[in-house]
Amino acid sequence: MSKMNKQNNNLSRGILWSLAFIFFVISLLQLDIAPEKLANIFSRTQRLLDNMFPPVIDDPINIAGAAIESLQIAVMGTLWGIIFSILLAFFAAKNMTPHISISYLVKALAAFVRAVPALIWALLFIIAVGLGPTPGILALAVNSVGMLVKVYAETIEEIDQRVIDAIRATGGSPIQVVMQGVLPTISSIFISWSVFRFDINLRYATVLGVVGAGGIGWELIRASRMIAYNEMLGVTIVMFIMVLGAEYFTRFLKQRADLATIRATK
Amino acid sequence: MTDIFLETRNLKKVYPDGTEALKNITLTFNKGELVSIIGPSGAGKSTFLRSINRLNQPSSGEVIFQNEQITNVKGKKLLLVRRQIGMIFQDFNLIKRSTTVRNVLHGRLGYMSSLKGAFGRFSEEDVKEALAILRRVGLEDHAFKRADELSGGQQQRVGIARAIAQKPALILADEPIASLDPSSSSNVMNYLKTISEEDGITTIVNLHQVDVAKRFASRIIGIKAGEVVFDGKPNELTEQRINEIYDQRGLVNELTS
Q1: Mean per-residue pLDDT of chain A
Q2: In chain A, how many domains are there?
Q3: In a domain, A220, yes or no
Q4: Which of B89, B97, B111 faces A264 most closely, judged by CB atoms?
Q5: Is residue A162 within 8 angstroms of chain B, CB to CB?
Q6: By the number of CB atoms within 10 A of the CB, which of A195, A229, B48, B219 ranks highest?
Q7: Residue A48 lies in a domain
């Protein structure tokens, strides 16, 4: 019996491997990854690097303005995302929702929103509201809602029933239960997640400009169209510094929030 | 007895999994008495208390509180009933990350407009009152500490303070000392007794410890498997009656848990 199983396993494994190999070969041929191209990699890279160094920032004021715009898009997108997510999360959380079907509906909606990448949302909103930072903010807000509703709702679902009982027993109304009981208990976990989302949003905000949704990404595309590789590197370095700075900032905030959580659960 | 304060008639509770937690509980309570309910774990003591302030919905039967049928009141009406009934929990059920005084102020939520309460816009009068109540339970120095910085006994006194802040007519205490050490336990029981006597608040206390019940209560009710098996004065509760309430099996459970 077990011997037969083993044989079966071996057979199916063999089939899988050969299928994977065939797929690999077909892909190689179809995508035209020719050996001569690979051979050229080094000389091309050499040329690119020669053109990139030294990096320049041609128009510092303009670049700085674009960088700040990216930051603003990230902040605004995160803020609106948080506001809508908190509201929706209470409808999504099974222990708070007015009706269980509303919970499923909101969760399904969030899953759908989450499944569509931020860049696609940006393209959709550009069609809807035109170029500029507005579609960027909307894209990030919507994409944030997809993730935050899920994590907020899960946090709310894990809340101790005793906290809810405490306020209900005093004659508190449902909204008082939420605001005086639930929110103070989970606020630090909410803050942790929101800060994490801001970190993600800032990364997105730097590239949203590539599709025309405002911010520093546009400068990168502009430089690449002019084949100004040294400027591209300059802009990339600015992006790198922004993201790194944000990472340090969010780590600092997260540590503080975590500390508060540890103190609370002690 | 013309002036029955609280009455339950044929109160029944069947949980969705089929457990019959309460079978026909019919009891009356008078104004100002301190009643202790004793019985083994799982006898239905908690379910009974939670059926009174409707944290649990009874399956059938009636609860009559101050001559008013409250078994099926809903919405705003239910909140008005609940604000007259303070509840004290085994695990204190404080909002741990809020300050002590704010936890006491939660007792005022039922008296405020929903939004004002939600945003914690307590009136100066309420804050002063809350601080005075904290003084009464000996915690005035801890008013602005976070609730989770206090010891268990102190947290339970905050729980009592929150109940008093409601200016309740009835206090339900569900195993208030089960999570406390002996000295905090008698301290907390003393506060409950004092408040019941001084403010004339009817108090129903679920207890595990028969000796504590005998020491503090003016009347003891024994519940076993969802039924009332004893109702009388502490001195009527003989060893034999205790053994009936906690039958051999129950006693063993009690000792090993």
Answers
A1: 86
A2: 2
A3: yes
A4: B97
A5: yes
A6: B48
A7: no
